Amino acid sequence: MAFGITREELNRWKEAVSRGEIAYLTHYWLDPRFPGSTTVTKVGCADLHRLSAWCEAYGLPARYIHNRPPFPHFDLMGPKQVEVLRQEQLWEQLERFRLIAP
Questions:
Q1: Comparing 3-7, 56-60, 64-68, 83-87, which segment has the lowest mean pLDDT?
Q2: Strands 39-44, 23-29: parallel, antiparallel or unpaired by DSSP?
Q3: Predicted confidence (pLDDT) per residue in 8-59, tens digit
Q4: Rounded to whole angstroms, how far apart are CA atoms 48 and 20?
Q5: Angstrom distance (rounded) from CA 20 to CA 40
Q6: Full-prediction pTM beyond 0.85?
Q7: What is the edge-to-edge ordering of all strands in the sheet holding 73-76?
Q8: Helix%, strand%, coil% for the chain, nearest 5
Q9: Residue 30: Cβ within 10 Å count
Q10: Which of 9, 24, 80, 101 is deepest in the core (most CB within 10 A)?
Q11: CA distance 22 to 18
Q12: What pLDDT is recorded for position 62?
């Protein structure tokens, strides 16, 4: 279950993904398969080659891309999520979802 984002934020992410951009969308999330994880960042891009290259650049296995047209994405959780958001300087998402201290 996803929560903590607006319809407008979701639509902006979908538009960027559809344009073939690498787009990041962090939201609160609860899934019993991942106890202790309360957020996920969906890194999306309609260009699967570009998304695979992004995975490779961060040392992530591209085989875990959720190839769900029209919004293919990779789910980031845990320490790697924080690491990538820091490297991408997505401070608003890190602070808003309490992944780092404000």
A1: 3-7
A2: antiparallel
A3: 999 999 999 999 999 999 999 888 998 888 999 999 999 999 999 999 999 9
A4: 9
A5: 21
A6: yes
A7: 2-3, 23-29, 39-44, 73-76
A8: 40, 20, 40
A9: 13
A10: 24
A11: 10
A12: 98
Helix/strand/coil (H, E, C) string of 46-59? CCHHHHHHHHHHCC
Which residues have CB under 8 Å from 75's CB, separation 6+?
Answer: 40, 41, 42, 43, 64, 66
Task: Evaluate the CA torsion angle 67, 46, 59, 100 in order and state its sign.
Answer: negative
Specify the amino acid at residue 90.
Answer: L
Nearest to 28 by CA among 43, 41, 39: 39
Q: Distance of CA 30 to CAs 4, 35, 74, Å?
A: 12, 8, 17
In sequence order, what are the residues at sequence separation of 6 or more whose Cβ sits closer than 8 angstroms to the Cβ of residue 16?
Answer: 23, 44
CA–CA distance, 37 with 66 (Å, rounded to integer): 19
Closest CA to 63 of 52, 49, 53: 52
